[in-house]
Amino acid sequence: MIPGSFNYHRPASVADAVKLLVDLGEDARPLAGGHSLVPMMKLRLATPAHLIDLHGIAALKGISRNGNNLVIGAMTTQHELLASDEVAKSMPILHEAALLIADPQVRYRGTIGGNVANGDPGNDMPALMMTLGASYRLEGAGGARDIAAADFYQGAYFTALEPGEILTSISVPVPAAGHGYAYEKLKRKVGDYATAAAAVVLTMSGGKVATCAIGLTNVHETPLLAADAAKAVIGTSLDAATLKKAAAAASAIMAPAADARGPVEYRKHVGGIMVTRALQRAASRAK
Amino acid sequence: MNDLTPTREQRTAALEGMGCKRKRVEDIRFTQGRGNYVDDVKLPGMLHGDFVRSPHPHARVKKIDDSAALKVPGVLAVITAETLKTVNLAWMPTLAGDVQMVLADGKVLFQNQEVAFVVATDRYAADDGINAVIVEYEPLPPLVDPFKAMNADSPVLREDLVGKMSGAHGPRKHDNHIFEWTVGDKELTDAAFNKAEVKIKELISYHRTHPSPLETCQCVCSFDKIKGELTIYGTFQAPHVIRTVVALIAKLPEHKIHVIAPDIGGGFGNKVGAYPGYICAAVASIVTGKPVKWVEDRIENLTATSFARDYHMTTEIAATKEGKVTGLRVHVLADHGAFDACADPSKWPAGFFNIVTGSYDFPTAHLAVDGVYTNKAPGGVAYRCSFRVTEAAYCIERAMDILAQKLNMDPAELRLKNFIKPEQFPYHSALGWEYDSGDYHTAMRKMMEATGYAALRKEQAEKRAAFARGETRDIMGLGISFFTEIVGAGPSKNCDILGIAMFDSCEIRMHPTGAGIARVGSKSQGQGHETTWAQIIATEIGIPADNIMVEEGNTDTAPYGLGTYGSRSTPVAGAAIAMAARKIKAKAQMIAAYKLEVHEDDLEFDIDGFRVRGLQEKFMSMKDICWAAYNSVPPGMEPGLEAVSYYDPPNMTYPFGAYLCVMDIDVDTGVYKVRRFYALDDCGTRINPMIIEGQVHGGLTEAFAIAMGQEIRYDEVGNVVTGSFMDFFMPTAVETPHWETDFTVTPSPHHPIGAKGVGESPNVGGVPAFSNAVNDAFSFLGATHIQMPHDFWRNWKAAKDLGAVA
Ligand SMILES: Cc1cc2nc3c(=O)[nH]c(=O)nc-3n(C[C@H](O)[C@H](O)[C@H](O)COP(=O)(O)OP(=O)(O)OC[C@H]3O[C@@H](n4cnc5c(N)ncnc54)[C@H](O)[C@@H]3O)c2cc1C
What we know:
The structure holds two protein chains of two kinds.
Chain A: E1 7-9, H1 14-24, E2 28-31, H2 37-42, E3 50-53, E4 63-66, E5 69-73, H3 78-83, H4 85-90, H5 92-98, H6 104-109, H7 112-117, H8 125-132, E6 135-140, E7 143-148, H9 149-152, E8 153-155, E9 158-159, E10 166-173, E11 180-186, E12 196-205, E13 208-217, E14 224-225, H10 227-233, H11 240-252, H12 264-285
Parallel strand pairs in A: 1-3, 2-3
Antiparallel strand pairs in A: 4-5, 5-10, 6-7, 6-10, 8-9, 11-12, 12-13, 13-14
Chain B: H1 8-15, H2 27-30, E1 47-53, E2 59-65, H3 67-71, E3 75-79, H4 81-85, E4 91-93, E5 99-101, E6 107-108, E7 114-120, H5 123-132, E8 134-139, E9 166-167, E10 170-171, E11 177-184, H6 186-195, E12 198-209, E13 218-224, E14 229-234, H7 239-250, E15 257-260, H8 276-288, E16 292-295, H9 298-304, E17 307-319, E18 325-335, E19 365-372, E20 379-381, H10 389-407, H11 411-418, E21 427-428, E22 434-435, H12 440-451, H13 453-468, E23 474-484, E24 496-497, E25 500-501, E26 504-510, E27 516-520, H14 529-541, E28 548-552, H15 569-596, E29 603-605, E30 609-612, E31 615-621, H16 622-629, E32 642-647, E33 656-666, E34 672-682, H17 689-708, E35 740-743, H18 761-779, H19 792-801
Parallel strand pairs in B: 1-16, 14-15, 17-20, 18-19, 27-28, 34-35
Antiparallel strand pairs in B: 1-7, 2-6, 2-8, 3-7, 4-5, 9-10, 11-19, 12-17, 13-14, 13-16, 17-18, 21-22, 23-33, 24-25, 26-27, 26-32, 29-30, 30-31, 33-34
Helix pairs in contact in B: 10-18, 14-15, 15-16, 17-18
The complex binds flavin-adenine dinucleotide.
Protein name (chain A): Xanthine dehydrogenase family protein subunit M
Organism (chain A): Bradyrhizobium rifense
GO molecular function, one term (chain A): oxidoreductase activity
């Protein structure tokens, strides 16, 4: 568990970072908190010849309100998300989910940018970002572009990030006042990735679900939006039959791998249960 | 006497002797990051070694090409089996009478087996080097399932043993067979089963797991060519044994080998045996003339050094309709992996598994154990238990629950009915042990009262009815465990390691000012010996524990001891300490008599000195006696005040305990919650109640981990799939339940201070309590036995198989 040798760079601006990435080509990787990348390097599953540390770029940090959006700099740590009053107030599901990531040590270092850019289906933030309708700002040699989180994930560790691009910030629409939310995550222990997790953001009107978005973590090679499941609950009061239908619709799109967390059948089954529980808890919180 | 004269209570308290919750003296350095562990040892010019390991579980090694590796900057040497053959060290003897490859010799037999040892100027270069060694393998069919080991068409693993129809423990039935070990009266037992009114039979497996101490196995070997001396700093639970093993296999004079075990970050059996890393580092140091450090990483520790358990126990009990047990029959299939490297006393191929009759009065029993080879890592160490005692306790405690279920009897009642009675001690078990002391009924009843057992059963009945009505998806289980351990190996009449009797030792040297040093043959790995050993001496000789320094782990200074594992330190070394202290006290008494001008027999020991019987004021403190020992001893007596004791215990000790686990399981997800865990331990005399409590907490946490998910698992083609803490369940403070501890005290009649040992009881007794709770929860749905580990998905699967989830 000793990484191979690599060169270390610490640019002071996004432009410099992009230039390094372009010049050094495929052998270079951005380094954020290092809590996904460094373990891979220690196992020599990743062997980048150059690490471009983004910690020297002040512009990549911070949380700000921009109209109806929260804009979160890529290098904002999970701990900073948890410490933010703005997040707690306007986007409590982000607080709830961040608290379920690993442990304090990991959260002090791990960044939201690294978490969403990594492309690991086990990461919690991607499905949540899809549920919230977030978009990512990517900056490369050719300038900046925005891409919806829902369009970003292509396969395990495959994303829409082009060579030479850096994810600089995330823009998340603030959910409607009075919305209900829940992030339900089944894990074996603190520090474990989800066996299955579901994010739900909904609004209720007259005791019935008015709007709903459901995201799924670690039950497929990419994070998922469970659109059919969300559709199934609209206009209902989340009675038992509806919940069952939603869980079944969500399970139908899951294709998890069998691993030490359990066989495929189990992970799909509990994936459905996470959806059910998240819906119930979200509804109970909606005003 | 005036107000300032300390009372007897104050004088006793000042000693901080036995029974005192003395704070751990070693924690002062541990909590400040000032411990000194092997990885802290940095010698001038020190090199680093690292292993090339096999990706295959079973393969022929066709070629090892080290040419590219030797070009990596910093790499100095690549050692292979061919190198080791020049010094006759390609293979090494195991503690179990087998031999083991140090580096792959023609073949590899388990995934991550050591293939080559790369020596470099730093760890990074060594790792670069191992990645540059090219090994050509020819994969062979792997043997993973122990139940297939002795099939006619199974691949033969150990080509070195082909045709040898007898091993260290008798005849072999197959090339993949290691030994068969039988104990007990077969005819009588068969007869009991033929007559039995009620019988149960179940395959009870205890899965493969690993002790996984925080600090992995490591060493620094330094060979001094001029003096011809080898110094080894290592994470050794038994430093003297390592010294003797090195002397025997490396053919070095034993006095020129210095083994030093500094602070150890947990052992749990992982650090008893000898590993290829030690041999390779020693050879590398001899070859290069430089000190060589070898430090395992976590993956290597979990996958290559010393697993534990892996016992498949077919268990049968015969009983009367009323629930009186009449016979026990157990067959064990023991998966030993590629080499038989079990760390048991030499004559005990299955350890003390014949304690399997447990706390119950079985009139007859028969046990047979077959050990087999598979393509898995070697080991079979006693993971926080006396040798194979955890397996035995799990076997009998699970089986008693199964019998209770069959009889439709409460498992507590069944146990009470069959306990060995207080008046039967010393008790001779059907499988050959002499239990020293016990009062099982009292302990069991205390547990039942403290936990409100009857009310819990009532609640469970209500919960089950609610579950049947569809009102809840939670099921509730009560797991009882009433275990009897056998620890303190052991009496020379039946215990040795490589021919050395399993005594232990202590040397005490009192200095003139009333302070002293005690050197002991045991070796703490976190148990707190520096604290408790001083407490024994404090009470025995009346010198404050703070004035006694305890030293262990340096073979040049400590008297020869067999080390610390199997809860043997208190029963054996603890006894040696008391006996050495008594020798000091006896000499002190002679000095006091001389100084007080009375006959020795007129003196009585009084807390911290000797007093003339009936004469309050004629008193000499131990402190003053120490001074006198260096200037005015009686004529003819040698000056000084020191003593050595080597203690050969007359018997083992038999700690016991009554545990109860209350668990709720959500059948839809399999997620469990340990609502309560009560642990009553009887370890005889209690030296330091705080340390006992700490030991119980630690052992229960490990038991919880093992029962609820901690396993070393291989897939069907022999890949080890639980090689890191991501998948090998290591609970954090968040998952760990709250522990309630309690005790009774039944001293050991043969031990000088009546102490029995406690470090391992909670692991031994805890596992069956957790597993019985899970099984009890599912029993009303029709389950008789669900195999461990009981992690979430397996609980869900159990519920599904029983029709409780769609
Ligand atoms: C024990 C442990 C448990 C964990 N458990 C969880 C968990 O339960 N849930 C969870 O979500 N995560 C978990 N993590 C992962 C953790 O949240 C990581 O910190 C996170 O996934 C990656 O963020 P990072 O800042 O550490 O990124 P890094 O590790 O530095 O980078 C990850 C990848 O993203 C790339 N990258 C990083 N930043 C950018 C950027 N701005 N633009 C482009 N590419 C970039 C890197 O090149 C690299 O390929 C765990 C980690 C550990 C060590």
